[in-house]
Amino acid sequence: MSQCVRRRQAARGTRRETGLGTVSEPAGAVEATTAHGDKGRKGLFARIALFVRQVIAELKKVVSPTRSELLTYTAVVLVFVVVVMIFVSALDYLIGLGVFALFG
């Protein structure tokens, strides 16, 4: 989305929430007040409930890999780990030779 469109939507207060398909309230909307007079401040349990709802909504978007993808990713990770192990072992061996040559 271009910056021009974003600015216009922000000015009107009609920007869509990503993935939810809901339109936010207009910019001039009156916010709810609590007994303490805090504008828009929600209680602890309301915020926890909102967090849990958002987590569940995000988890519904997760797509599990297929068996072939899982095997491919596992092979790539194992090969990478072996390569890094060889590199670190070689580095350790060379540094050991250097230290032995200096102080041995």
TrEMBL record:
The keyword Protease does not apply. GO terms for molecular function: protein transmembrane transporter activity. One of its GO terms (biological process) is protein transport by the Sec complex. It holds the Pfam family SecE. It is found in: Cell membrane; Membrane. It comes from the Bacteria. Its main location: membrane. Residues 1-10 have a biased composition (Basic residues). It is a single-pass membrane protein. Belongs to the SecE/SEC61-gamma family. Component of the Sec protein translocase complex. Heterotrimer consisting of SecY, SecE and SecG subunits. The heterotrimers can form oligomers, although 1 heterotrimer is thought to be able to translocate proteins. Interacts with the ribosome. Interacts with SecDF, and other proteins may be involved. Interacts with SecA. This is Protein translocase subunit SecE. It comes from Xylanimonas oleitrophica. The gene is secE.
